Amino acid sequence: MLCKKCQRDKPQDQFGRPLGRTTRTGYDIYCKECRAAYAREKRAKTGNAYGKQYYQRTKNDPKKRAHRSAARARRRAALAAVPSEPIDIETLYVRDGGICQLCNTPVSRQDASIDHKVPISLGGPNLWSNVQLAHLTCNARKGNRV
Ligand SMILES: [Zn+2]
Ligand SMILES: [Zn+2]
After folding, report:
1. Contact present, 134 and 101 (Cβ < 8 Å)
2. Which of 2, 29, 99, 100 maximizes the CB count within 10 A of its CB?
3. Measured between alpha carbons, how far is residue 68 from residues 8, 62, 72, 76, 80 in Å?
4. Which ligand minimizes its atom distance to the CA of 7?
5. What is the domain-level CATH number for residue 73?
6. How far is the CA of 76 from the centre of ligand 2 (A)?
7. Domain that holds residue 25
8. Same domain, yes or no, for 85 and 136?
9. For residue 145, how far is its CA from the centre of ligand 2 (angstroms)?
């Protein structure tokens, strides 16, 4: 059988089953070797797209979102060279009694965010002593003010 890609004549057992639609011969039009190379190439090209898809799928998941925001804070702290310790929003939520520390009203777990009393961008550390529970909206409104 002739491989459509490398144009070499190879025995039938060098060809797998076709992906998706069937072919005239019932075998893949690429030999296994070429098919593997093709898959590798495709993965390299679309690897990032998969990451983006994952982000799209999980961006509204509160748990994953909180995890991402904690990871972002750690990264910011590392860049700003300020002290940092792992902050987890679940513990913070319990510590602050589920009350937004900016507007003093209850906050649901979905709307909860980690607010840095002194923003990391202004040299505030990413430590338990410098974080408080806040609504996402209150946190966003506060921006970089102390
Ligand atoms: Zn081939
Ligand atoms: Zn609030």
Report:
1. yes
2. 100
3. 49, 10, 6, 12, 18
4. 1
5. 1.10.30
6. 23
7. 12-58
8. yes
9. 15
